[in-house]
Amino acid sequence: MLIVGVLTGLGAWLIGLPSAIALGLIAGLLEFIPFAGPMLAAIPALLIALTLDTQTVIMSLALYTFIQQVEGNLITPIVQRQAVSLPPALTLFALIAMGLVFGPLGILFAAPLTVVTYVAVKQLYIRRVLGDDTSIPGERQGQKEIS
Predict the structure, then answer these.
(1) CA-to-CA distance for 145 and 34, rounded, in angstroms?
(2) What is the SS3 assignment for 55-89?
(3) 17: closest CA among 41, 40, 51?
(4) What is the pTM of this model?
(5) Choice between 85 and 28, residue whose per-residue pLDDT is larger
(6) Would you say 8 and 59 are in contact if contact means Cβ atoms under 8 Å apart?
(7) Residues 6+ apart with CB under 8 A from 10
(8) Where are the domains of the chain?
(9) Tell me: the pLDDT tens digits for 3-13?
(10) How far is CA 29 from CA 22, 64, 99, in A?
(11) Are 24 and 9 in contact, with CB atoms under 8 Å apart?
């Protein structure tokens, strides 16, 4: 979220959009919503750019597209692999399912609830019931559960 907010703020300032800091803050905060957040963050910037000229609209669209591609294809996979080992397909499925069942609030909480459920299944079922020594995301090497 921080990286996207800073990149968006700097990019908006470089292309001459007014309220670049506010646009960066909006982009950073909306990054909390997986997949849909970055698209929602582009709307205010594009509306502001429409008041200026066509070249600014095109540059704004290119900026948000570039940042989204860097975030989605580079930053997020690296962070998820290191922090949680959460399969991307599971996150996408959870986002769709939670959005269908709970609407916009489900989309907002889909990724965090998926991580909690993923860890709970590995801890309570795979480790305790099946007895398999699987790694738990967030657990340090050598650290074992206290029974």
Answers:
(1) 31
(2) HHHHHHHHHHHHHHHHHHHHHHHHHHHHHCCCCHH
(3) 51
(4) 0.62
(5) 28
(6) no
(7) 20, 24
(8) 2-83, 86-147
(9) 999 999 999 99
(10) 11, 14, 19
(11) yes
